[in-house]
Amino acid sequence: MQGRIGFSHPNECRKSAGPHGETSAVSESHNDAFVAFDRVQKSYDGVSLVVKDLNLNIAKGEFLTMLGPSGSGKTTCLMMLAGFETATNGEIRLDGTNINMVPPHKRGIGMVFQNYALFPHMTVGENLSFPLEVRGMGKSDREAKVARALDMVQMGAFANRRPAQLSGGQQQRIALARALVFDPKLVLMDEPLGALDKQLREHMQFEIKHLHESLGITVVYVTHDQGEALTMSDRIAVFNDGRIQQLAPPADLYERPDNSFVAGFIGENNKLPGTLEELSGDKALVRLATGELIDATPVNVTQKGQQTLVSIRPERVEFKTGMMPPGAHMIGAEVLEVIYMGDILRTRLRVAGSDDFVMKCRNTQGQTRLSPGEQIKVGWHPQDARALDPI
């Protein structure tokens, strides 16, 4: 069998959880980071920790997304950074200054919420002018900044309308403009696109991404939507049970998950249970539950006889002999279901005893159409199989 070619991991931007879940970005030391969480904990009852020993550094101008399921601790971290929650232990720094005891309105942070939080009795222009008035800015300066912020989000013609006269997408643009109007040090976004329909949400993802790129602002974004995080972020921190499971750029996170939770949470993923038969450097030989032997890359398995889940992305699975990559494994499969999804054909297979093995193929002209009940061979390159911890 073909062994797996070792991957290189760029240390300048990639970091994952340590043995106790502690995490920090290599590219920024605590002294240099624009935003720094230093051993931060949060408990609401004095006993259980919602956030556990968080060490996280965010660079100036970075777009960092906190991603994870409900209850994972991501929103609590954002609220502590905003000042709406207080850390139980540890220190949060912004541009080198401890802000643990600084009230929210004095942190210089812009905030965008899912529900927009616009004042309904004010016009769009008045909504944007309000945070400038609070800061004591003169009328002419306020008007200039409001006009500039509205132009940023392509809403310059809507200054005299009230929020109720705007669509959901327009209201979200105004909420974004209000967060930017006073030139904040940092912008926080808490599920800002969650209330929008799919098409508008995807459009707004690109708008926010391009706005971030053009302004160079620092953004911390919270979402449970994996596709949203992959589309927009410079780096993603995947949260679970109050800890960061992995911190990495989108491609690194998707292609090289550090554990079974990340592999299962980021995108669709096939998982084949097995036992580690041999281990040598960056190569592992795994015996699947049905007896087949396959090569894989050992990630967090360390000894012979250890149980593992082999992770394989559906788009890396092929059934056409001519399309197989060099060194690909071949294994028998039964077609159970074929679903037409427009741009792709999603085929569910029975492979090595699993009835939930998925293969995704591009829907191209002349594509071979499979039918339920067909017996086929499927394959993947050994480097696309990762031997991870069993859940």
Automatic annotation (TrEMBL):
InterPro entries: AAA+_ATPase, ABC_SmlMolc_Importer, ABC_transporter-like_ATP-bd, ABC_transporter-like_CS, Mo/tungstate-bd_C_term_dom, P-loop_NTPase, PotA-like, Transp-assoc_OB_typ2. One of its GO terms (molecular function) is ABC-type polyamine transporter activity. It catalyses: ATP + H2O + polyamine-[polyamine-binding protein]Side 1 = ADP + phosphate + polyamineSide 2 + [polyamine-binding protein]Side 1. One of its GO terms (cellular component) is ATP-binding cassette (ABC) transporter complex. Residues 35-266 form the ABC transporter domain. It holds the Pfam family ABC_tran. Keywords: ATP-binding, Cell membrane, Membrane, Nucleotide-binding, Translocase, Transport. Its EC number is 7.6.2.11. Residues 1-25 are annotated as: Disordered. Belongs to the ABC transporter superfamily. Spermidine/putrescine importer (TC 3.A.1.11.1) family. Part of the ABC transporter complex PotABCD involved in spermidine/putrescine import. Responsible for energy coupling to the transport system. The complex is composed of two ATP-binding proteins (PotA), two transmembrane proteins (PotB and PotC) and a solute-binding protein (PotD). This is Spermidine/putrescine import ATP-binding protein PotA. The lineage of its organism: Bacteria, Pseudomonadati, Pseudomonadota, Alphaproteobacteria, Rhodobacterales. The gene is potA.
